[in-house]
Write a structure and sequence with these properties.
Elements (H helix, E strand, L loop, with lengths): L5 E6 L5 E2 L15 E6 L38 H7 L8 E6 L5 H14 L4 E5 L4 H11 L7 E3 L4 H9 L6 E5 L16 H18 L2 E6 L12 H5 L2 E7 L5 E9 L7 E7 L2 E4 L3 H5 L10 E8 L2 E13 L7 E4 L3 H15 L6 E7 L11 H13 L7 E3 L2 E2 L5 E2 L4 H10 L4 E5 L12 E5 L2 H8 L4
Parallel strand pairs: 4-8, 4-9, 5-6, 5-7, 7-8, 15-16, 17-20, 20-21
Antiparallel strand pairs: 1-2, 1-3, 9-10, 10-11, 11-12, 13-14, 14-16, 18-19
Helix pairs in contact: 9-11
Length: 459
């Protein structure tokens, strides 16, 4: 006798299951996120056995043994190869997310065309656009000569059958995972059950066939990939495509990578003919820099293994409000509050009666604490109205006591600054640097008050 379908309510944010509908999810406390779904059994391709069936004993192995390095599939896009750790691993699953219109479909279409031109087979399944729309994009990008196999399909069973028909595909692109559905589940596309079943089925096929799989994921208003976190745990690599629509620069950032380093970035520039790779992002981020205006400091940062120089801009203006305004773009707002508090308590420079605006030029988002010293220099420069020396570069972490702590990869930062023509580096007094690392002049700072006394004396 067939088991009756069981009705349950599943949170679309954290996948918590509830026997009845409630307004607030008991797991993540999100409001109105529970959706009724029918559990008719294990989803197809999930590997789960029906109730009552015993599993088979598997062979166990030891940790010792010869293990070869995972092979790589060169994409032809240097920046993408950098982010993935040297190329895409056959049989791996990659999840890429980004805001609508940021360029995800353009990047993946260029990737599919690049591989197809080298003799690799690439399948592109579009669930959001018709094939005619994808062809129009390919014509605009000049990719119509590439032998990419294209289909507009959202049914999971049809996609798996198409991929298994004929020779093994080297690359499978799904745009996007939220549009797929399986007729074995009584749930709408984009729900937790459908996304989990589609991801499991596609990854299972990719592992068995040795095909590289790329899934496109929608993002929420907070910038996170939509759906439960279990989807990110299932794939091998998670990439985020970032950028400002009003800015031509796009950043591809690795958040998770089982076959390479995380926090690596690739830099692209959106042009009429598609996404162009940027070999030297530091020159691009500093191209329109105005060295005569106060409140602008150049920060020597590290993104993964790549040194990146970017301008941090600050504007400090008298406030007519009871509570001064604090606005940040490209940096952590709590980090700005901490720097302002340290400048007030440890250096005697108060911003209590001023509005403070901080911006990272070029649309780059900085997360490393080594940007503290550059942000403080920009704030002090705008506060005093005196521009910083154009040939100076800054980096270093500021503690709550005002001490400037050493940063990682100091020699790499200095070499990049010297290559771009900077003459002086303002950096922490702590930390050893090899004498031959760079010939740039070093201005060592032990405490933030040293910088404050120089840039904003007697304030």
């Amino acid at each position: 006798m067939a088991r009756a379908a069981k009705q349950s309510f599943i949170c679309q944010n954290c996948a918590t299951t509830s026997p009845r509908w409630v307004g607030k999810c008991p797991g993540c406390e999100e409001w109105n996120s529970l959706v009724e779904e029918t559990d008719a059994g294990p989803p197809p391709g999930s590997g789960m056995t029906p109730k009552g069936r015993k599993g088979a004993v598997v062979r166990l192995e030891a940790l010792t043994g010869n293990t070869e390095e995972a092979p790589r599939l060169a994409t032809g896009l240097t920046e993408l190869d950098r982010v993935t750790g040297g190329g895409i691993v056959p049989g791996s699953a990659i999840l890429i997310g980004g805001e609508p219109g940021i360029g995800k479909s353009t990047l993946l279409l260029q990737l599919a065309a690049s591989l197809a031109r080298t003799g690799q087979s690439a399948l592109y399944f579009s669930g959001e656009e018709a094939t005619a729309q994808v062809r129009l994009r390919a014509e605009r990008l000049g990719l119509t000569d590439a032998p990419v196999a294209l289909a507009s399909e959202t049914n999971l069973a049809n996609i798996l059958a198409t991929a298994a028909d004929g020779d093994r595909p080297d690359l499978i692109i799904i745009d996007s995972i939220q549009t797929l559905w399986s007729d074995a589940l009584e749930a709408a596309p984009g729900t937790v059950s459908q996304m989990r079943a589609a991801t499991q089925g596609l990854i299972r096929f990719a592992k068995q066939a040795g095909s590289a799989l790329i899934l496109v994921g929608h993002v929420t208003k907070e910038g996170q990939i939509a759906g439960p976190k279990v989807i990110e745990h299932m794939v091998d690599t998670v990439l985020y495509f970032e950028g400002d629509r009003g800015n031509p620069f796009r950043l591809l950032r690795a958040i998770k990578n089982r076959f390479g380093a995380t926090d690596e970035i690739g830099v692209f520039e959106m042009a009429d003919e598609g996404l162009k790779e940027v070999a030297n992002p530091s020159e691009l981020f500093l191209g329109d820099r105005d060295g005569e205006a106060p409140g602008a400091a150049v920060f020597a940062g590290i993104e993964g293994t790549r040194p990146v120089l970017v301008e941090i801009q600050a504007l400090v203006a008298p406030s007519g409000l009871g509570t001064p305004r604090r606005a940040v773009v490209g940096w952590d707002s709590s980090r700005l509050s901490m720097i302002l508090a340290v400048l007030d308590a440890r250096c005697g420079v108060s911003f209590a009666a001023h509005d403070v605006y901080l911006n990272v030029a070029g649309g780059l988002k900085i997360v490393e604490p080594a940007a503290d010293l550059a942000a403080a220099a920009a704030l002090l420069s705008s506060f005093s109205g005196a521009p910083l020396p154009k040939e100076h570069v800054y980096f270093g972490e500021v503690s709550l006591s005002g001490a400037v702590r050493a940063a990682s990869h100091m020699a790499t930062r200095l070499r990049e600054a010297e290559k771009l023509g900077f003459e002086t580096a303002v950096l922490p007094a702590a930390g050893d640097i090899k004498k031959k690392a760079a010939s740039i002049k070093l201005d060592r700072v032990k405490h933030l008050k040293q910088l404050a006394d120089t840039l904003a004396p007697c304030q």
